[in-house]
Amino acid sequence: MRYATKPEWRHQLKCIWGGLLALMVLTIPVWAESKKDPDLLAIDATATYHGTDFSAEYTVVQKKADQGESSLSLALFRRDDQDKYVLVLLKPDSDRGKGVLRIGESLWKYFPDSRRFEVTSAKDQLQNSNVRFSDFDASTLADDYEVIDRSKADLGQFKTTVLTLKATNDHVTFPKVVLWVTSDHLVRKRQDFSLSGQLLRTSAIPAYSKIGPRAVPKAIIILDELSGKTVNGRFINDRTLVTISKPAFERLSDLTFSQAYLEKLGR
Amino acid sequence: MILQLAVRNLIRQAERFGVLFLTLALGGWLFVILLGTTSSFSQSLRDRAVRYFAGDVIITGYNDRSVDRWIDDEPAVDKAIRDSGVSIHSWARRSVNYDQNTTLYFSGTSQRQRRLIGVDWTLETGRFKGLDFVSGGPEEMIRGDGILISDSTAKKLKARVGDQLLIAMSTKTGQKNTVNLKIRGIFRDASFFGYSSYVDIRTLNQALGVSGTSVSEIGLILPPGANPAIAAHRIWEALKKTKPVVDFSSSESELDRALSKNIVDGTRKYAVLPLAVRLGPIQEILDALNAVTWSLNLLFLVIVLVGVNNTYRMIVFERIREIGTLRALGMSKVRLGLLFLIEAGLLGLAGAAAGWIVGNFFLWVASLPDFGDNVLMAMFLKRGHFVWTVPWIGLFAATSSLILAALAGAGGPTLRAASWKPVDALRHEA
């Protein structure tokens, strides 16, 4: 029997350590992924549209106690694989042509009158409504939150799992979120809280449209938990109704997700 | 002797000198009104601005985001202030939230704020007692759970002292945060300084998600009469030895240019700003007001000069026989000239004094009504009232000018009067 000599033994040990190190590095994404909550991953999967582009028309009706009702229409084009979307205002006529372009972490507002792009933030609100630009993003709950509590609850006709989420970074708008999720991983209700635990808004999604394997909300009702008016002893919250129509999943031109596209539409 | 003679002449010939006296008094009155008004506006505005912007000189740190202003190294700034040798009356430490999405809520109604200012009440409670409070006050703000709001905000929210407000804002990293605070005071303030609220610095810092001791601005209040621009420059010179600084700026436009030039990467750079820089267009209005005031004063002086000159020519013409009598009795030309000049000087002094008295009376009357509801005027008023101030230096200069104008106006005719031969003067028929 031949035994390994000292230099050979050292070489073998180096190979073993190197292999172990390579194995660890290669499996880091798996480890990271495994730290993400499976429920949140599943929710993200239903709300994110990979392998295709998404387009739809949104009608946003804002009801404010002291200002009455206002509405606007917009077209949304989204490419989740590349973290991009374009939003173009269709109505009212005074705002027609205004748009928003998001590419990765960068977000611009476009003003057709002055043909000017202005850097903005995903945390900003759309035309002073309760809807934020971040609401049009693909869902990244698994990246940004961890589940700190789970329970069961009935929500009208739905049997839901209630997930209490806490932000894992300080870049998200709402540090605490509570979700009511049905067994098909669709969010039916959501509450957003401030860092100090104050309820800021409540969103409800009563129904979804099923297009093949994908689901798109038909409507979203957003209640502003801070603003409203007391009428006959009852507090009526300001609310926003978002209706989504003509959802479609088909490949769009690359030009759609560019500043040039907004400039062309603005003309 | 000549002085007695001059006084006697003025008294005995009061009718003759009456118009001249009224002209000089009118000039004095106008000087007092114009200078007093401008001084009052400046003083009121300065007091408001010093309270709003934290001091006559403000030190802050700029980053590449315009609303992200912090002082990372407060000891270095303190050392620079000491090393500069600038004399300071008092100082302020503040944390300021410039995010205009900051909103106050009460019973469902909301009002956005231009600024939310965190104040170190251990240093500034006394100064805030000078604010025009409609109700409440700053005394309990040191407890940390209170807020001072403007009357326009209180009106919009239909809130009163003692009510609990919810303040919604974003942390430094953009997360939504809220804090509940009790209204401790409601103050009256003009639109330029309005829609800003004051809270405790520790409370604001906690809500912003920064350290409780963080400071975004240090304000220095200088002793009366000190020049903020000179003081700021001295502090800037001392600070630039140890910290990166923005080019020194003495106006808003200079600051804009300096920020564009100096803030190019993520390095925080310090700016030492005299109050005029922060006042921006309001300072330009004040400067224009001062320029108009002094132009008008100069115009009145010229009018007074011409008026006195014309009137004295007539007076001398009417007194030729008197001049002849005095010369015949042995009065020399020089003493005669001196007599007339003393008369003019005393007339100038009396006119200025009368103008002073009447002008200050008018200023006092103007300080009585409450103009608090007038939005345009509000920033120049104190507690809704015009402030009756006496700008001593300006008035001394104006009075001296009036007397000199009287002397200058009388000078020519006096020289001519003194040059008359006694026999010719006695022969003259008036």
Quick take:
The complex is a heterodimer of chains A (267) and B (430). Chain A has 267 residues and is α+β, with helices and mostly antiparallel strands.
Structural features, described:
The complex is a heterodimer of chains A (267) and B (430). Chain A has 267 residues and is of the alpha+beta class. Chain A has helices spanning 6-35, 38-47, 141-144, 259-266; strands at 54-64, 68-79, 84-91, 99-103, 106-111, 116-119, 145-155, 158-167, 176-181, 187-193, 199-204, 208-211, 214-217, 219-231, 234-249. In chain A, strands 6-5-4-3-2-1-15-14-11-10-9-8-7 form a 13-stranded antiparallel β-sheet. In chain A, strands 12-13 form a two-stranded antiparallel ribbon. The longest helix of chain A is centred in the N-terminal third of the chain and has 30 residues, at 6-35. Chain B is of the alpha+beta class. Chain B has 2 domains: 2-49 and 282-427, no CATH class; 54-278, no CATH class. Chain B is built from 15 helices and 12 strands. In chain B, strands 1, 2, 3, 4, 5, 6, 7, 8, 9, 10, 11 and 12 form a 12-stranded mixed β-sheet that branches. In chain B, a hairpin with a 5-residue loop joins strand 8 (164-170) and strand 9. Chain B starts with a helix and ends with a helix. The chains are: A alpha+beta (267), B alpha+beta (430).
Q: Which residues of chain A sit in consecutive blocks of at least 5 with pLDDT less than 50? A: none
Number of helices, where a helix is a run of at least 4 consecutive DSSP H or I residues of chain B: 15
Radius of gyration of chain B: 30 Å
Count the DSSP helices of chain A.
4
Strand content of chain A: over 45%
Order of helices and strands of chain A: HHEEEEEEHEEEEEEEEEH
Gyration radius of chain A, in Å: 24 Å
Distance between the termini of chain A: 85 Å
Would you report the number of β strands of chain A?
Answer: 15
Helical coverage of chain A, percent range:
10-25%
Instruction: Note the overall shape of chain B.
Output: elongated
Q: What is the residue-mean pLDDT of chain A, rounded to a whole number?
A: 87
Most strands sheet of chain A:
13 strands, antiparallel
Biggest β-sheet: strands ordered side by side in the sheet of chain A: 6-5-4-3-2-1-15-14-11-10-9-8-7
Taking the sheet with the most strands of chain B, its summary is:
12 strands, mixed
The shape of chain A is globular
Please estimate the helix content of chain B.
Answer: 40-55%
- How much strand content do the residues of chain B show? 15-25%
Largest interface: A-B, 26 and 19 residues
